[in-house]
């Protein structure tokens, strides 16, 4: 599978439940822009057949290699980032996993029921990255119990493996050169942005500025028949800056990422 096939399959499954991303991309295009992606991100459960460690070889299979590692203590996550070995324009990939054993016992038990349903050989090809949830639909009570302690766990229990965001590269836009201009356009168009820690995460001095929409909401029926609208996926905007050595910063920043995760919060 080529990276281009990989990202177009991902975009298809992502926009099915994130119609705002398609609309915002079209908005940029209607203003004469060509939208390039800075990165996409995935979430998963550790100690499972779809752990970060088990998924990583499928990224290597499409020509990617890991170049950074991150820890999010209060969210009980760890993550790695990946870039293509030869094509610098191919989107970067951010893959995180939930450290399930750090959650309260009752959450571990709920997640344990999902993990027990994942086939041991679930990871066979890069297509696993849009496999969705590999377990039965949770009950509303289990979903709410997870959300209480880990919004990430609640989100993952309903959505599963799939790109949780694509990211517009502001560096490649012509008419919206700053993150402020992008945010203002989105606000004028009525989109709800993630305000955790302010609209803009990061500064030019830290070489990476990011903002994101709040996730789209989709109608969801839990296994017990209860219905509610739940967050699906969101769209991100990133502007990278040059470092003193003349290279564009190409990694991620824990302090920014910590807030971007909140784009799928239920509250
Ligand atoms: C990933 C959040 C981190 C970034 O650009 O820092 C991130 C997620 O929400 O799964 O995407
Ligand atoms: Ni991101």
TrEMBL record:
Cofactor(s) this protein requires: Fe(2+)
A family per Pfam: HGLS
Enzyme class: oxidoreductase
Keywords of this entry: Dioxygenase, Iron, Oxidoreductase
Annotated InterPro entries: HGLS
EC number of the protein: 1.13.11.93
Superkingdom field: Bacteria
Family assignment from sequence similarity: Belongs to the 2-oxoadipate dioxygenase/decarboxylase family.
Record-linked PANTHER family: 2-OXOADIPATE DIOXYGENASE_DECARBOXYLASE, CHLOROPLASTIC, DUF1338 DOMAIN-CONTAINING PROTEIN
Name used for this protein in its record: 2-oxoadipate dioxygenase/decarboxylase
Originating organism: Marinomonas maritima
């Amino acid at each position: 599978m080529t990276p281009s096939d990989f990202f177009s399959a991902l975009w298809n499954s992502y926009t099915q439940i994130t119609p705002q991303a398609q609309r915002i991309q079209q908005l940029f295009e209607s203003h004469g822009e060509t939208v390039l992606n800075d990165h996409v991100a995935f979430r998963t459960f550790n100690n499972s057949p779809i752990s970060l460690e088990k998924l990583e070889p499928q990224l290597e299979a499409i020509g990617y290699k890991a170049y950074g590692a991150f820890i999010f203590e209060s969210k009980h996550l760890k993550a790695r980032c990946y870039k293509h070995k030869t094509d610098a324009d191919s989107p970067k990939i951010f893959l995180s996993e939930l450290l399930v054993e750090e959650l309260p016992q009752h959450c571990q038990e709920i997640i344990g029921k999902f993990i027990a349903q994942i086939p041991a050989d679930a990871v066979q090809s890069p297509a696993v990255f849009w496999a969705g949830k590999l377990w039965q639909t949770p009950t509303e009570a289990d979903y709410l119990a997870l959300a209480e302690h880990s919004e990430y766990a609640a989100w993952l229990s309903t959505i599963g493996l799939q790109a949780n965001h694509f990211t517009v590269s502001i560096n490649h836009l012509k008419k919206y050169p700053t993150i402020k201009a992008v945010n203002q356009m989105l606000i004028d168009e009525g989109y709800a942005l993630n305000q955790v820690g302010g609209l803009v995460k990061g500064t030019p001095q830290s070489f990476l500025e990011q903002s994101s929409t709040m996730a789209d909401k989709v109608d969801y029926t839990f296994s017990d028949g209860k219905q509610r609208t739940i967050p699906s996926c969101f769209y991100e905007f990133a502007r990278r800056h040059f470092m003193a050595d003349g290279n564009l910063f190409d990694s991620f920043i824990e302090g920014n990422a910590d807030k971007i995760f909140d784009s799928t919060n239920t509250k």
